[in-house]
């Protein structure tokens, strides 16, 4: 009997020899390539610069062109086109969400003992409570359910797809409505994050996902942060840089909380943009091409870094190819969970921690067989092919308003079209672009006519992936969800 007990103790100790790490995963809203200090010295982000320099900076990290698909990829480990999440984003009145049959990252982490929290926007469906965070693996949720809010008033900021004049209030604490407050939303997020970290029982692993509402496109900023750039005459640039400095302070406050709680050495901190900037209005993807919602690099190649004592090789720039789906597999592996073989994500821990060569040589930007505005893009090694319409937001926006190179010096403009019933819209162009992304990361030289054999090879590979294409989720807009039906608040329960 004593031998049996001893054997059990040995097994238990061996199982718990490597304790799962705490994970803090920060997604910054619409963060452009040129919006961080290590890519733009005019931006004052000393905390982010230090954390990046002490960790690993990723030079070729990819996400999806828009918010919802990026979050769907992180939550599931699947390319969005394989699970019906490839078409645009989830609009406020859309009566669908991330398919309920999919088990999400926080649900898997809960099964091995993680305490899971979501702070910030959800944007994966809210017409039914079943789609919302606390029904899908998060122990708590604090923030909006829709795609974005104003920083002070917490009103929905959707510009395309909204068929109501009442934008609606949107801020939740779990399922309850947070009473209207004029406190800046980002400040509320960081206060909640500090509370969660300080009260967390460290014997249980923590997964804290923070979707910041900044930098975004809403140019509201506390005056003390705008004052840091009083020497800049352009109001847009001054306010936006102030927002970036606020973002820097927020991340610093979160890391300070980890230190005070005594868990920083056991925590992996991941920071990245959820997609590129809406560069015609707010941030800058310079020198990369395109705005959020396109298939160009400016929408999908984002600033990213990791920091933490778990990383074995630090203080360098990693040039391996990494996609957002890979973080799903990597985080599961760190938690001691074997990822499903069917998912698209690859465990990148050896690439991240030891600077080993990335096993990823191919990524699919998106495939969307929309009958009016179809598009697809793929990268294999150094070559990237784009076919169809480059702008995923058609007909709200035309490619001519989103396919350029924009920086802070450019005059801002509203790229979205005002739509009238039965308006005759120009059909989107059917483009074919081929770029050598390593040699031409700014996508200025279309070589499709020069190398038709490479175009054909990448098209053939896209056709292979197209066999896994699922029909997009229901994009019908239902006026039953109008917040005027719920006291002016976006509320689930109408689908």
Distance between the termini: 58 Å
Low-confidence stretches: 1-16
Percentage of residues in DSSP E strands: 15-25%
What is the mean predicted local confidence, pLDDT?
A: 92
Largest sheet: 10 strands, mixed
Order of helices and strands: HEHEEHHEEEEHEHHEHEEEHHEEEEH
Q: What is the count of helical runs?
A: 11
Strand order of the largest sheet: 7-6-5-4-8-1-9-10-2-11
Helix content: 10-25%
- Computed Rg: 22 Å
**Helix/strand/pairing class, anyone?**
alpha/beta
> How many strands?
16
Overall geometric form: globular
Quick structural overview:
The protein is an alpha/beta fold and 495 residues long.
Structural summary, described in words:
This protein is an alpha/beta fold and 495 residues long. Helix content is 24%, strand content 16%. The protein contains 11 helices and 16 strands. It has helices at 2-15, 46-54, 67-76, 105-110, 185-199, 223-226, 235-260, 297-300, 324-334, 349-354, 452-466; strands at 22-29, 56-58, 61-62, 115-120, 140-143, 172-173, 176-177, 206-215, 267-273, 304-307, 316-318, 322-323, 362-368, 375-380, 383-388, 431-436. It has a 10-stranded mixed β-sheet with strand order 7-6-5-4-8-1-9-10-2-11. Helix 3 runs parallel beside helix 9 (324-334). The radius of gyration is 22 Å and the shape is globular. Residues 1-16 have low confidence and may be disordered.
Output the keywords.
alpha/beta; 16% strand; 495 residues; globular; 24% helix; four-stranded antiparallel sheet
């Amino acid at each position: 009997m004593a031998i049996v007990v001893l054997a059990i103790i040995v097994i238990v100790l061996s199982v718990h020899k490597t304790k799962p790490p705490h994970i803090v995963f920060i997604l910054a809203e619409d963060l452009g390539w040129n919006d961080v200090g290590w890519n733009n010295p005019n931006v004052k982000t000393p905390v982010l610069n230090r954390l990046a320099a002490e960790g690993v900076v990723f030079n070729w990290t990819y996400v999806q062109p828009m918010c919802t698909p990026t979050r769907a990829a992180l939550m599931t480990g699947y390319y969005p086109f394989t699970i019906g999440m490839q078409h645009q984003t989830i609009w406020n009145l859309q009566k669908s969400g991330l398919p309920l049959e999919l088990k999400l990252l926080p649900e898997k982490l809960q099964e091995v003992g993680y305490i899971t929290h979501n702070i910030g926007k959800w944007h994966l469906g809210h017409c039914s409570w079943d789609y919302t965070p606390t029904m899908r693996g998060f122990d708590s949720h604090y923030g909006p359910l829709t795609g974005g809010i104003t920083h002070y008033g917490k009103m929905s900021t959707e510009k395309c797809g909204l068929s109501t004049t009442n934008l609606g209030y949107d801020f939740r604490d779990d399922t309850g409505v947070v009473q209207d407050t004029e406190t800046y939303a980002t400040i509320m997020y960081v206060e909640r994050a500090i509370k969660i970290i300080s009260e967390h029982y460290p014997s249980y692993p923590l997964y804290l996902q923070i979707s910041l509402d900044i930098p975004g496109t809403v140019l509201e900023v506390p005056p003390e942060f705008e004052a840091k750039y009083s020497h800049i005459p352009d109001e847009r640039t001054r306010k936006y840089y102030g927002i970036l400095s606020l973002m820097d302070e927020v991340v610093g406050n979160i890391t300070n909380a980890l230190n005070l709680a005594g868990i920083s050495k056991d925590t992996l901190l991941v920071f990245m943009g959820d997609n590129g900037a809406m560069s015609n209005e707010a941030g800058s993807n310079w020198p990369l091409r395109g705005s959020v919602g396109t298939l160009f690099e400016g929408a999908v190649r984002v600033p990213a870094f990791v920091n933490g004592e778990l990383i074995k090789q630090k203080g360098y720039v990693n040039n391996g190819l990494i996609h957002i789906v890979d973080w799903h597999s990597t985080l599961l592996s760190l938690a001691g969970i074997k990822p499903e073989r069917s998912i698209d994500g690859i465990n990148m821990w050896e690439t991240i921690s030891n600077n080993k060569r990335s096993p990823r040589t191919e990524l699919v930007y998106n495939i969307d067989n929309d009958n009016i505005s179809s598009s697809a893009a793929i990268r294999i090694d150094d070559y990237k092919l784009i076919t169809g319409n480059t702008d995923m937001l058609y007909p709200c926006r035309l490619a001519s308003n989103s396919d350029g190179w924009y920086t802070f010096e450019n005059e801002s403009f509203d790229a979205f079209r005002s739509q009238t019933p039965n308006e005759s819209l120009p059909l989107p162009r059917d483009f074919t672009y081929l770029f050598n992304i390593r040699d031409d990361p700014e996508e200025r030289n279309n070589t499709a006519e020069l190398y038709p054999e490479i175009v054909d090879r990448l098209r053939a590979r896209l056709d292979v992936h197209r066999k896994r294409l699922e029909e997009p989720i229901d994009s019908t807009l239902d006026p039953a969800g109008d917040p005027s039906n719920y006291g002016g608040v976006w509320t689930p329960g109408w689908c």
